[in-house]
Amino acid sequence: MKLITRNTDYALRALCYIAKQDKSKVSAEELVNKLGVPQPFMRKILQLLSKNKVLESSKGQNGGFKLRIPAGKIYLFKIMRIFQGEVVLNACFLKKNICPNKGKCVLRDKIKSIENDVFRQLKAINIASLL
Amino acid sequence: MKLITRNTDYALRALCYIAKQDKSKVSAEELVNKLGVPQPFMRKILQLLSKNKVLESSKGQNGGFKLRIPAGKIYLFKIMRIFQGEVVLNACFLKKNICPNKGKCVLRDKIKSIENDVFRQLKAINIASLL
DNA sequence: GACAAATGATACTATTATGGTATCATTTAA
DNA sequence: TTAAATGATACCATAATAGTATCATTTGTC
Fold first, then answer.
1. How many CB atoms lie within 10 A of CB B63?
2. Which of A88, A89, B80, B130 is a Cys-bridge partner for B3, taking CB atoms 3.0 to 4.6 Å apart?
């Protein structure tokens, strides 16, 4: 089991790279060369980050990507949501069946509390803190 | 993303059910009926729990399963390992490529620290605490 | 205006993990 | 001897992850 997927990992590294540059824009090509991620995959990741307003893109010659939000406000939690969908620890699989405990499921409560803890930590990590 | 899979969830519920009984053994059939999990799937789960020395099984007529370890010593973490393999937050995907940070990767450090936290919590939950 | 260099949109494929089924062998109490 | 249980094992289905490919669109530069 992994909490962080490749997608997310690459996205974080791309964001860190962009954040560290002085330049106004970084091209997909540069990121591909510097991070060693396959080109079409890197492009897909950048496009998703743009769609989700984390990056701002400019097309055409000399185009590229830059941060749309200050690095300090790009949280790990948000990036995970983009690439891994809703983050949940356990969706109580028996919900629709005969859950013997119904409302007062101890397991669910415990899980929820771990969940909150993890979320709090993931929300505390941002791109600036990774530089 | 889910931290806990169906496998693990069903296993926990089966273990809780068994732990709550007075009887010396509980059959797969009974668990299937009480928990509403498909029979072959439940059997597979029970077999894995036996193989991993969490349950003790007896074959033959009136056979069944019972705890091999006291409920208070069956930890969530262990059950997750059995059904979800090695639990890791992030396997540093760039390890074999050109990781620009090499040994001093801030991301990895941060992840490791969340990881340890989560593990500590998962190890604190046991079957007894779920009853 | 043509062209090259960039991103946008989209659709497809491959691999792995998860979820689940099926079947035959073995044990054992009655 | 037989029925009721688990053991072993092999297989299939679905979903998530990882990755590829291609054409359309924009835009700076000559």
1. 11
2. A89
Distance in angstroms (rounded) separating the CA atoms of residues B60 and B16:
24
Question: A15 in helix, strand or coil?
Answer: helix
Q: Confirm if A106 and B131 have CB atoms less than 8 A apart.
A: yes
Q: What residues of A are in the B interface, CB distance below 8 Å?
A: 1-6, 9-10, 12-13, 16-17, 34-36, 80, 84-94, 97-98, 100, 106-107, 110-111, 114-115, 117-118, 121-122, 125, 129-131
Tell me the whole-structure pTM to 2 decimals: 0.88
Q: Which two tokens stand for residue B100?
A: 């620009």
Sign of the dihedral defined by the CA atoms of residues A12, A13, A16, A18, in that order: negative
* Average pLDDT, integer, range B30-40: 94
Cα gap A81→A61, rounded to integer Å: 31
pLDDT in tens, A51-105: 999 999 999 999 999 999 999 999 999 999 999 998 777 655 444 444 555 455 6
Residue with tokens 């964001």, as numbered in its chain: A15
CB A56 within 8 A of CB A67: yes
pLDDT at residue B94, as a whole number:
43
3-class DSSP state of B116: helix
Distance B30 CA to C17 C1' (A): 29
Q: Which residues pair with A57 in a beta bridge?
A: A65
